[in-house]
Amino acid sequence: MNTCIRSHAAAAISRRPAILALALVASLAAWPSGVALAAEKAVVIPPPVDDPASANASETAVLAGGCFWGVQGVFQHVNGVASAVSGYAGGEKGSATYDAVSIGNTGHAESVRIVFDPKQISYGRILQIYFSVAHNPTELNRQGPDVGTQYRSTIFASNPEQARIAKAYIAQLDKARVFGKPIATTIEPLKTFYPAEAYHQDFMTRNPDHPYISYNDLPKVDNLKRVFPDRYRVKPVLVGAGA
Description:
globular; Peptide Methionine Sulfoxide Reductase, Chain A; single chain; alpha+beta; two-stranded antiparallel sheet; 8 helices; 243 residues; EC 1.8.4.11; Met_Sox_Rdtase_MsrA_sf; Met_Sox_Rdtase_MsrA_dom
């Protein structure tokens, strides 16, 4: 059963409190047996050996790691990140909607487009946070209770250099066996990123008491603060107006 789908559907009707409450109760009641409600602990991993400096004023990383609420929320709290937008990557424009992607056969993955200043944080450091605290890279086509290729762990490389760095880092981490299991993260060339619907943006910040956020995603931000204190920013950089 796909909990994130139920949670997203509840968000879409957030102006109807009674229906929303019923949806959330049903979501928790149907949580798969044997699946922990709390987010997994962070895995402390070494930085990439191959992480060349960039002379660009700005760079973009597109990463998929399960429900985009949590991945966006983590990177919105990272120093050097100018923006983090939830969206879809891997499929075609016509299917880049939540209703279509939720079916799981569009080729899209729930993704986050991260624009960052490489003078403040490198692409390799972005990947280190992604692998360590933003998601579990050893799970194949799922993250926790959310199952399907739309929740796969994927790095959408914007250029051959990003693909090379990501491939080398995965090999480095697998060789060191820091996770105990092989990394399932795939590397795909980025075709186009499509921003998600407005109600998905800044969802963690706007809904800190949402059961899905409380159990799965807020602990990721706590892990970011603990494992990467030099990278943590208290005030998130938000998509919404006035952020």
